[in-house]
Amino acid sequence: MTITLDSFPSVDRYGFPLQVCGRCGGSGEHSYNQFHGSVCYGCNGHGVRHTKKAHNEFQDWAHALKRQREALGYSLQVGDELAILQSTGLMATKVVGWHSIVAIETTDEECGWSITCAPDGTEQRTPTCWTIIITFDDGEQMRASTNSVFRRKGWVDPAPYVERSQVKRRTKTKV
């Protein structure tokens, strides 16, 4: 049975172009193994995958989105919204709400050092991060480090990445 793109969507939910998986022919199944069953690794069992150019652009967009959402303490600004996380198991967290930052106070309290050995054998400590106090919209305060990682609310528009993934290659013309 031949599966065509007519029975599948031609773009994903963000607009990146899709093609029928060449590994499984669109069935979503490939050779069986005991760990994953017969799920095709090329399309993760969906039957379609991004075109090569769309895959690269999708990865670039995903990295830009990750950079937008992951914020270090020193890059936070008043007005940023940070996630309230709840632990749902070993190393798994779930966003249960958002807090807006209304104030950030930097302190002179050092909380991280780089330790080097001097030629005479003594230790030299160089501060690498400081404590900050973040005040949220509900009045709650949190002490954190300038090197702490936070999940910030944000979005990167996928449209420019989608546009680049759909640009056709120019063909050379013989003169």
Any descriptors?
175 residues, mainly beta, two-stranded antiparallel ribbon, 42% strand
Protein architecture, described:
The structure is a single chain. This protein is elongated. It has two domains: 5-50, no CATH class; 71-151, no CATH class. The chain is built from two helices and ten strands, in the order E-E-E-E-H-E-E-E-E-E-E-H. The mean pLDDT is 87. The chain has helices at 52-69, 159-166, and strands at residues 18-20, 29-33, 37-39, 48-50, 70-72, 81-89, 92-117, 123-136, 141-145, 149-151. With 175 residues, it is mostly beta strands. The longest helix is centred in the middle third of the chain and has 18 residues, at 52-69. Helix 1 runs antiparallel to helix 2. The strands form four sheets. A four-stranded antiparallel β-sheet has the order 6-7-8-9, with no helix packed on it.
Topology overview:
Blueprint lengths: L17 E3 L8 E5 L3 E3 L8 E3 L1 H18 E3 L8 E9 L2 E26 L5 E14 L4 E5 L3 E3 L7 H8 L9
Antiparallel strand pairs: 1-4, 2-3, 5-10, 6-7, 7-8, 8-9
What's a concise summary of this model?
15% of the residues lie in helices and 42% in strands.
